[in-house]
Design brief:
With 276 residues, the protein is α+β, with helices and mostly antiparallel strands. Strands 2-1-5-4-3 form a five-stranded antiparallel sheet. The longest helix has 18 residues.
């Protein structure tokens, strides 16, 4: 059954309003309540909007509330995160950034380990590396040897001596990485850590500054890279990027050998490290 969006928004707001217990919100007791839950006047007061506006929304009069009003209604109605996102979706707005997890969820960290022998890592939208397995450390870089504040894939690509020499097609890799970072910045314009990273990279690296000024935007989920590994020579890898449903700002990147020669090189690297 196809549902009209305005009608669905009206029904959803009424439903969530009627589910609330006024006592849970510290509202004064009133003897006569003809309907369950909150009154429209109470929702309007909690959200800081007019009663007439709430009435028109619940009567599906074709209004499209602003993102600020949607956020205020979500708070007033005590919506759960998924319900809040649903309300933003109904009103054709993107939910504002609600806070970034600074560490990997334990289940995701275990998944990264379980993906061995595939090199895998978990990053957030800033390219901060939150988790990685041993294969990732052998093939690319042991992020555990870096201070936590420097475990950032963009920063190490620009600055770390090993990473600067690792990619055969470094120009393309860096260009695509900067384009992805610009797309992330558009979604998280208020992220001060992200803004600080961009400012630091632009001030310290002319190539990054040039690429950022080009304003290219790209969200690449899969691709191909050729590595110049110092121990096993050239290694061609393919990668796939996945987003966890409960942490959609996180990126799970899984690598695999692109050909038999590269697989043999990765096997040698793994066998050598196990022997040590």
């Amino acid at each position: 059954m196809v549902t009209d969006v305005a009608q669905e928004l009206a029904a959803f707001l009424r439903n969530r309003r009627e589910r609330l217990d006024p006592r849970d919100l510290g509202l004064p007791e009133r003897r006569q309540r003809r309907t369950p839950g909150l009154r429209r006047e109470e929702v309007a007061e909690l959200a800081g909007i007019s009663v007439d506006y709430v009435v028109r929304l619940e009567q599906a009069r074709g209004l499209r509330p602003s993102a600020d009003v949607v956020e205020a209604l979500a708070r007033a109605l005590r919506l759960a995160p998924d319900e809040r996102d649903y309300l933003f979706g109904l009103t054709r707005h993107r939910p504002p950034h609600a806070g970034e997890r600074a560490t990997a969820a334990p289940s995701l960290a275990r998944l990264v380990e379980d993906l061995s022998p595939r090199p895998a890592m978990l990053m957030n939208h800033r390219y901060d590396v939150l988790a990685w397995n041993d294969e990732m450390a052998r093939l690319f870089l042991d992020f555990g040897a870096l201070p936590p504040s420097r475990r950032n894939a963009m920063w190490v690509c620009l600055v770390h001596p090993r990473m600067r020499e690792l990619y055969v097609d470094r120009d393309r890799v860096l260009r695509e990485g900067v384009a992805h970072l610009r797309a992330a910045w558009a979604v998280h314009p208020d992220d001060r850590l992200l803004a600080g990273l961009i400012a630091e990279c632009a001030a310290g690296d002319e190539e990054f500054a040039r690429l950022w000024a080009a304003q290219d935007v790209r969200v690449g989920g899969r691709g191909h890279k050729v590595l110049r590994h110092p121990d096993v020579g050239l290694v061609a890898v393919e990668f796939e990027t996945l987003r966890p449903v409960q942490d959609p700002d996180h990126l799970l990147v899984v690598h695999r050998a692109a050909d038999e020669r590269s697989q043999a090189a990765m096997d040698r690297l793994r066998a050598r490290d196990h022997a040590e």
